[in-house]
Amino acid sequence: MMPSLEFLLASGIGFVTAAGIYLLLRGRSFPVVLGLCMLGYGVNVFIFTMGRLWTGVPPILKAGPDVADPLPQALVLTAIVIGFATTGFVIELALRSRHDAGTDHVDGHEPGQPKPHDHEGGPR
Amino acid sequence: MNLAQHLPILPVLVPAITAVLLLLLGDADEQRAWARRLALASALLGAVFAFQLVDLAGSGVLTVYRLGEWPAPFGIVLVVDRLSALMLALSAAVALPVLMYASGGWDAKGRHFHALFQFQLMGLNGAFLTGDLFNLFVFFEVLLIASYVLMTHGLGRERLRVGTHYVVLNLAASALFLVGMALMYGLTGTLNLADLAVRVPRIEGGEASLLQAGALLLLVVFGFKAALVPLAMWLPATYAAASAPVAALFAIMTKVGVYAIWRIHGVVFGADAGASAFTVQPILLPLALATCVVGVLGALAAHSMPRLIAWLTVASVGTIVAAIGLFSAAAWSAAMYYLVNSTLVIAGMFLLAELVATQRGRMADRLEPCSPVAQPVLLGLMLLLAAASNAGLPPLPGFVGKLMLLQAAAGHPWAVAVWTVVLVVGFFTLVGLARAGSILFWAVRPDMPANTVGGSPPRLLAATLALLVMSVLLSVWAAPIQRYTAAAAAQLQDRDAYSRAVLPESGGTEAQTTRPYRIPQPGPPPPLPLTDTNGAPR
Question: A12: domain range?
Fold first, then answer.
């Protein structure tokens, strides 16, 4: 028996989101960025699903009761664009932070190493 | 075309256009004077529009602005009620002095400061105006993207490290926002706040539980933005690492989260929401009180002045959300009054902390004895004023706000807890600030090299003073402002009037749409559900 489309999509979203959260909790900036991407994918498909799953139905009203909801599709587009832009920014920020701190660890220093101070007078 | 008719969109458009002009102007040193003038003029214009909107909303009119004339809930609407107008005026009141302060030198320490500042204002104003949940998300993103760059303004290792954390945490929160929003859409078939308020009470049974899960997810997101415990730990590090004017501007950013909690959880999921009524009530008040306590403990343990103020921001958010959590008009009125005051005072304190730090020698903003400051009387009095207002000493507005809150809490089952926490937190705020003030101004070490900085430039002093004076004025005009906030709270609780204003075609009831979808039943196809106003099929 074929699993239903709903089951496939739900488990797929769950798997991608779980992978995203796992990566998000890593200590290096690159896996964290990847985790954010994965999380974004999961969320985008989730929004899409909230218009319910239809097959062979146009996203426009016509002489028939069945329409695929066009709104989640528009929402997903917006979310994708925003997600893409912010991912670009976070990659650039992570690169800059790695350049300045000399490490790609999210704490700004290697684990086990003492915390550096850039100048006297604390964080400023 | 009547300009007054388009007043509600202007607080969004003016910063957007200014930001584009500023980008065109570039940020070379030669153009900086012009960039400053343009940014200040735009902020001034924004303040004029904001106060016009306050005037308009104060008469009790609920202004609905339809973007592109599409009727709600199909198009996006901007709604100006008393609360929105108050928040717009507050953001303008914070932005002007902060911009003046930043023009004193901070804007030259990084690129495109003024353009980003305007984008941030655009996001803030949009979030306060919008009447649509997805549009709220978009404006959240606008203000966050601007804040990511402003946060790292001036660069430096610590800012980049904390900035990366800030960005990653906010992106994760945005993902949760989308999930919560999508759940709401999936169950109610609408994103318009007025339409949601109409439809949420009709959802029952298992679907209501799912809807409440969506609402709680949104509470996580807004609680994170507002820095509600246990999601407050990012705030002190971020605000302490940001440059002073940016931290002062960020004082209003936490209030966007508070505002969203108000709109979604206070109104849409508040009283009269059927099976979903008071979804967050069991957790909101305890969390808010915990936020107050954690905030003030952090302030007592802080080792630098900006960190202390950042923790006080957390405590003040706790106080405001506690008042929202009481779910009564009187408490909401107190929350609004206290919100305005605490935002102004905290913004002023962030600026003041930097003035003090530049006048001290090697220790800068660290709370350790050092050489004396150049202007001890002026800065000391300013800190005293801010501290007394923050802690809630009469006759300053902090006291008025807390008194309103305590009165509103009387009779509530949690009254004892609210009274205890608010009073004890006020006391320890005073202790923390007294400790800081005595170290900064009295614990002078003559053996340290005297600092060579003279007095602070008058422009910076004036900007800081302006914020503190505005806070004092809240006390002077306490009666009219209190009348305004009381009316705003009553207006906020009147869901029917809001729905009638936003959805006039359907008379404030559920608008006819094809959503939410049901699995089509076998049998003859149902009639076309979407009809226009004449009843003819579209």
Answer: 5-54+67-101
